[in-house]
Amino acid sequence: MKFNIGDLPVLFPYPRIYPEQYDYMCDLKKTLDAGGHCVLEMPSGTGKTVSLLSLIVAYQQYYPEHRKLIYCSRTMSEIEKALAELKALMKYRADQLGYVEEFRGMGLTSRKNLCLHPSVKREKSGAVVDARCRSLTAGFVKEKKDRGEDVNNLDLLEPHNLIPNGVWTLDGIMKYGEEHKQCPYFTSRRMMTFCNVIIYSYHYLLDPKIAERVSKELSNDCIVVFDEAHNIDNVCIESLSTDITEESLRRATRGAQNLETKISDMKDSDADKLRAEYDSLVAGLRGAQEDRDEDAFMANPALPDDLLKEAIPGNIRRAEHFVAFLKRFIEYLKTRMKVRQVISETPPSFLAHLREYTHIEKKPLRFCAERLTSLVRTLELTNIEDYQPLQEVATFATLVATYEKGFLLILEPYETETAEVPNPVLHFTCLDAAIAMKPVFDRFSTVIITSGTISPLEMYPKMLNFETVVQESYPMTLARRSFLPMIVTRGSDQVAISSGFQVRNEPSVVRNYGNLLTEFSKLTPDGMVVFFPSYLYMESIISMWQGMGILDEVWKYKLILVETPDAQETSLALETYRTACCNGRGAILLCVARGKVSEGIDFDHQYGRTVLCIGVPFQYTESRILKARLEFLRETYRIKENDFLSFDAMRHAAQCLGRVLRGKDDYGIMVLADKRFLRKRTQLPKWINEAILDAEVDLSTDMAVGTAKKFLRTMAQPFPSLDQDGVSTWRIEDLEAHKEKMENESIRQLRAEMEGIENGGGKEVVQNGNGKEEAQHMGDDAFDDAEAEAEMMKLDH
Amino acid sequence: MSRLKSQSTALTDDPLNDICPVCKSNRYLNPTLQFLINPECYHKMCSTCVDRIFTSGPASCPVVGCGKTLRKKGFHKAFFADLKIERECDIRKRVGAVFNRREDEFESLSSWNDYLEMVEGLIFDLVEGTMKEKAKAEETLRAHRAANAKEIEDNKRAGLEAKDVELQREREEKEAVRQRRLAILREQEEDKLDVEKERREMLERLARGDGDANAITKHAQKVILKKSSARRNLAESNFADTANGSAPSNLSIRGLKKKVAPKAELAYDPFGGLDLKPARYTLQSSYENEWLDNAKNNTLHMAGGYSMNEYYSRTMFEAFSGLGIFIGDQVVEKSLPAAPATIGTVGAAEAAGGRLRQEMNTDDVF
Ligand code: SF4
Ligand SMILES: [Zn+2]
Ligand SMILES: [Zn+2]
What we know:
heterodimer, A: Rossmann fold, B: mainly alpha, two-stranded antiparallel ribbon, about 55% helix, disordered C terminus
């Protein structure tokens, strides 16, 4: 389908479009035109990715700037989905236009997924694959070794023409690599500069250690999209936080000792190399590869820009001095780890103490990571994985010396409050999500943050410290009510249910939850998913249910499967669950609102007809890191503890709810079972909140069961997709009609405003005009009443 | 050292840490075993041995092959588990007391870096060098100390001052955090009272029964909401003010500025180098002007000490003053307030430490 938004012709690869997709694209275009950032919330299952891609591709092909698209997603499967969509879109465009455009789209993922090397690719851990590949491909190795079994022969090709135009899915590029004997990983990495669309994981932009290497060559007018971004603040924080344990320190010491022997070896055999390194450090030169492209260099969050240009401090210039320096620092950390009480301190106070005892100044500490990299390069070390812990310590040193604010050191000697055997961990934790995000916002003029559940919208700009030009949440237009969200606050015996600490283990509450589960397992066809706030709670409640005989009851209707922290077990459970849903036995999956299942796995159609959220999924509030973060948020961004906690809980709840509804032809029941949800209802995404009728907010179990039964009965009625036309899906005619209507509307508005100016309060009357009247106004357009009403619903909000 | 006081008495995994090399008593038998070292030779022994051997006066080290004469006074607990590092740090302390130049004393960064490297090399010789290197390094150290005694003193003082300033800043930050927290508590208290009051009023109105019950409840809710949001806005603006006001003047020295080497001191100048000579005109000894002639030639005028030159210079000054001055340039840029993130971080530290916090009842907050 082809239509225009403003002057921009958009090719949309489907014959029908959802109204919210159209609105979404309009807002995207507005953002791109204005050149700013935006936050958009689009209901899940309404084709967010395809709308995004088709608009942006149209945009980049139509305007002469050809702005690049960097599309970041969270998981591999999402990246692959996006690539497939992009491929279909480009094919459609070629068919429609009659020629194939100059276009290259590519995904990038870790070496582990893209490696072709016969032995390297068999390694299990990603870090090992990286390290082994590096030891095969490092510059000095290449110089020395003739290419043997390594399949990497990239240097034989032009760097801008490693791979022909087109969209390359991960599989596609693997195949191409195999055929042409060239490494898929390096192909996509080097071709990034020559791509129109790049699809990769968040980390390639947010993690300073990776971003510097991977993303620095991207130009500043790129359009950056963070999809599924409801968790982006946590990704930011994780990318800048490190944990140090006694074990990692021990291994770091070993690494330092290795370095020492390597240095003395080299002094005997090849002293010139060391001297050359030393000379270049004296001259303040960075390694050649680093300053290859000065302007496009991304401000590395680990080091401020002005510092990057400075020379390495004199007291760590010599290799042996530097190693002694590292050893001293590690010894210091070891000593600190011996303390048997919880300590939390800010970086400045840590540095002051450090200086007092080890005479380590802040500045050389800052250069630690960089100096180590240079040394490793000079020493031509190949077994880099051995130096991983040392690298971690060095990164920690750099971060702690660079950031005074927004970071905190927390030393926890014991794993739990009651533990006897100490297992100290030094958390260096980032409190401020904006720090990792800042370089991205500074560098790229347009950053789009979008997800199915990203409410309340204003929280994100506040937390990540940026300004938006557009901030929108779209309702879901439906031809019939295809999902039923309910809030259940009490059991059939009218006792309030809640997962609050005071009542969570009371038998009456547990029994009521159990009854709720039994009732819904009776009435739900096929699959049902249940979310608990935490593993701990899930375990305790399951064992109580077992004692009450509830599970036996449920067992009659459904198979019961449980998510565990173990990924393999969980995937097995999922598989069984799927089979049971397909063959009619039906199953219940018990899982945790913050676990893997709640984030990445879809339960569409028969896989999930009911989702039951037992309790509000609050975070574990006794965690010191969380406490610190709350305090910081309150002081710095004026976000109250309770606001944040409840926001965080609700975004997870919304994620869980969104799992069952993955498209407009899908249907499902969403049950929020906790009395506290009543108050938090407004924090749900707009599309869910709007679908909760006032009569369905304060239900008891039996009332909820009644409503659900009625709902399922309507869902059982045949529903020809034709009925959706013009309401929840638009053909091109509907779209044209809508556009015309919008135009008329805006003219009317203008006119009304003029009148309003003429005769005072007239304006308000027009705007609040009642729906029926307007529907009649529209009567002579090609609209049926239902659509007009749907439209009115939107206007009302 | 105070934070390390509570060092564990638990067994460490390194057996060497658990047995006294002198008397061979171990931690299994004596859980309070504590090791001491003497910076003369860094041989470690348990506190009982130290008491036993050195209480009656200086004695030689009991470790085989050492024999250095030690005094009880010199013994202390080692900070590092690795005694080599302990020794290195002691040496650093000694050298650092002599080579204590600061970066701003150097003309350029590279010379500062060279200096740092030189010192580092010296320390390295002292720590790991051969006998000869050590002796040479010691000699350099002594010579430098003798030659630069005064500067060393100055720098030491400067260092102490900087430390004081730092401490002061830390204290101020802590205090700011405390104040902020108190303010927030008060605010919450007020909030609660207000809501309470509003609710009571609503109930009263309902009881009186004037008007539609629904409307009253709705209205009351709206009022409460509006009030709290208004208060929040107010608080936010207040917050911005206090952030400006209470922020300590920006003392965090980035330490990157390069300064010129100190100039020879000039004679005292009360105007601080301000030049009063007119730049835009030259004052002449006399100006031709007929209406001045009268005054010039009239002795009656001059008799009282009236000076034409004074008059000239004043008039000229007035005529030219203000030229070449643009207001835009003169407005001093308002310095930005220190980001309150500092305070947030300090506060966060306390929150995480669990001190100073009221019980956080977060699960059932509403
Ligand atoms: S260059 Fe490519 S194929 Fe070779 S080891 Fe590295 S990732 Fe694997
Ligand atoms: Zn002893
Ligand atoms: Zn001795």
